[in-house]
Amino acid sequence: MSKLLFVFERDMPTISITRDVFTHLTGYPQIVSDFMYLTDVKPSDIDSHDVIIFIRPNNTYSWKIAAQARKAGHVVISMCDDDLLNLPKGLPTIPWRKKGLVKMLANSDAVWSPSPYILDKYRELTAGKRTVLSDTIIRPEELEGVDSDRDTDKVRIVYAAAASHAELFETYVGPVVPRLAQQFGDKIEFTFISVHPKLDGVKCNYLPGMPLLEYRKYMKEQKFDIGLAPLHRDEFSKCKYYNKFLEYTTQGVVGVYSKTEPYTYVVRDGENGFLADSSADSWYEALHKAIGDRVLRNACLANAVEYLADHHSETACMERMRQSVPEIFDEQGSYDFCRGFSVQKIKYYLRRPMDKCYLLFFYLKNTGINGVVKKTKRHFVEAKAYHRSR
User: Fold this and answer.
1) Whether the Cβ atoms of residue 72 and residue 334 lie closer than 8 Å to each other
2) Of 176-190, 196-210, 371-385, which has the strongest mean pLDDT?
3) How many CB atoms lie within 10 A of CB 349?
4) Structural domains present in the chain
């Protein structure tokens, strides 16, 4: 039996998704997983597990624990689902956190990510020069009831995203909506969940965010036809995961995606979804095709469902992982006792106020007082929505 310890600094969707996957494995009873806050980890917790996985460890404390764990003989892995070393302009890069992640990678046997882009970037920074590509497991029951043979008069289009993503919609999709409205008239209808972009000339429904289970139930019941997934074509966006493809497909929705990584890893234009370049003409053509061709739309949905069934089953995902890090599946044996790290823990607590001060000054400088107020409100709204969804 192999015992995995997942260590994380704070709650976030990444933690929930990972916990859900590893605590509900049906075909791998030899894997036992525990999840602990970084500040709760003790040397005895390291001693009682085989593989130690640090989730988004961009701090100065994780690598201290990792160094002791690896010295004691444990396999240490860093999990990154965003390119935390290369944040885009407008997001704060806290220097000591960036340094902490670099040191964490240097004390890791492998880097674990759902993004091949991140794996290519971070591989050489790890001690073991190894990578683990992780994919979200889709259970068979999640694909049950997906109707790929719809015949409706009205085409219902949905965009579900964080409030801050209104700019994405307004940049790529908004400019082509008047042309689509002129072409299709009352045949199309837009629904926005959590996000409120500016849009005129077409019927729109605006809904607030909702808990995850409620959201999934709503999406299933509403039977939307088309889902939107615009994304900037920059280095940070390329390191994201194709969650929208999984989300829309399991809800019976055909996606129109930006033609960039991560969507180009899985979406084939006109086969299991639609791709649009970063231009108004391309988005118009993709949406025009998706709206106007019901037969093609249904075929794309059927192919997307088949792709998930083949590539995102528990067996397919876990066996790909086994090829990268077989230690996850097999007990490693005896280890040396892990040394303590209480002094480093005190230093970590002392640095935490510095994080908040850095963020405050960063946003004051770049967005002003009004920007800080808006950012704070948005943070609490999104945090509340996340905790409601748990």
Assistant:
1) no
2) 176-190
3) 10
4) 2-137+315-354 (3.40.50), 140-311 (3.40.50.2000)
